[in-house]
DNA sequence: TCGATGTCATTGCTGTTGCAACGACATTAA
DNA sequence: TTAATGTCGTTGCAACAGCAATGACATCGA
């Protein structure tokens, strides 16, 4: 029997993920000209307060280099403020500016709306998808 | 209320997808030194018989350029044979060589095993995930 | 037949990604 | 203190993705 890629779970998962990721990326690209890493950094900072690059790297599944570069761009754009940590001068303290917070306010509404549409589209399977994703994020590695 | 990326569906989906995609990619990388596009082309050819670049591009969510380059590399490696279409000389006819079929035989076992592990890991949510992915691949765009 | 338009595969180009190295700094042990 | 080791953020670099342009060929209409 030959192998059927169409029904192969990793493949299907990947296709679905990039598809909806792109749909959503188009929204915040239109709203604020953000890239994916920029969006993630911004979204994380909205919750975390002042935080280091390493911290974001660990939580948001972005390489350190991307966090660093995204943060620089966001700083240029006036959305993020970068300052030094008091005790440990290796660390950077990243936090949203007023402008950054204002943007995240708008973006979080867009995101919430997008997610609501998605859940509606999923119908009864939404809850199960949620649980499945939780499982897939649990294991080692 | 601030926005929580951790529970945002598109984000979670993306993280899960890249995570398991990498896990699996490590397997066929170890087995045959393949990249993602190469794997997809190979897997598709295993089912389809002789087929054009355009065809694969349409079915496998890969840019034409990547299909083309992957096919060239696979040809170099002796896994794929590239010939011209009889009627339409713009078209290329891609098909597996004996070596390619042999490799896909091994790979499809690895893939099937991997999927089985994944489904086991998912437990009762596996079926629902499947249905959810089907829904997510249905819509326009 | 001949031109206009369209399609196919390939190639170039540019921005993005992820890894590896680097320099600055911190921490620990002697 | 000083040396050794470890961690942090940044940068360099090479591989890769996606887009646009190209050239070869096909098709359609006059």
From TrEMBL, chains A, B:
<dbReference type="Pfam" id="PF01047">
    <property type="entry name" value="MarR"/>
</dbReference>
<dbReference type="GO" id="GO:0003677">
    <property type="term" value="F:DNA binding"/>
</dbReference>
<dbReference type="GO" id="GO:0003700">
    <property type="term" value="F:DNA-binding transcription factor activity"/>
</dbReference>
<dbReference type="InterPro" id="IPR000835">
    <property type="entry name" value="HTH_MarR-typ"/>
</dbReference>
<keyword id="KW-0804">Transcription</keyword>
<protein>
    <submittedName>
        <fullName>DNA-binding MarR family transcriptional regulator</fullName>
    </submittedName>
</protein>
<dbReference type="InterPro" id="IPR039422">
    <property type="entry name" value="MarR/SlyA-like"/>
</dbReference>
<keyword id="KW-0805">Transcription regulation</keyword>
<dbReference type="InterPro" id="IPR036388">
    <property type="entry name" value="WH-like_DNA-bd_sf"/>
</dbReference>
<dbReference type="InterPro" id="IPR036390">
    <property type="entry name" value="WH_DNA-bd_sf"/>
</dbReference>
<dbReference type="GO" id="GO:0006950">
    <property type="term" value="P:response to stress"/>
</dbReference>
<dbReference type="InterPro" id="IPR023187">
    <property type="entry name" value="Tscrpt_reg_MarR-type_CS"/>
</dbReference>
<feature type="domain" description="HTH marR-type">
    <location>
        <begin position="6"/>
        <end position="138"/>
    </location>
</feature>
<keyword id="KW-0238">DNA-binding</keyword>
């Amino acid at each position: 029997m030959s192998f059927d890629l169409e029904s192969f779970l990793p493949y299907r998962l990947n296709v679905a993920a990039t598809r909806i990721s792109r749909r959503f990326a188009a929204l915040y690209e239109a709203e604020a000209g953000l890239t994916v890493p920029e969006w993630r950094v911004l979204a994380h900072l909205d919750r975390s307060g002042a935080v280091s690059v390493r911290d974001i790297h660990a939580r948001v599944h972005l390489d350190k280099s991307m966090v660093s570069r995204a943060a620089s761009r966001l700083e240029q754009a006036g959305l993020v403020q970068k300052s030094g940590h008091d005790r440990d001068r290796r660390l950077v303290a990243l936090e949203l500016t007023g402008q950054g917070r204002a943007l995240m306010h708008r973006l979080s509404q867009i995101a919430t709306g997008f997610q609501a549409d998605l859940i509606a589209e999923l119908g009864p399977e939404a809850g199960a998808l949620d649980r499945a994703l939780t499982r897939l994020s649990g294991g080692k590695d």
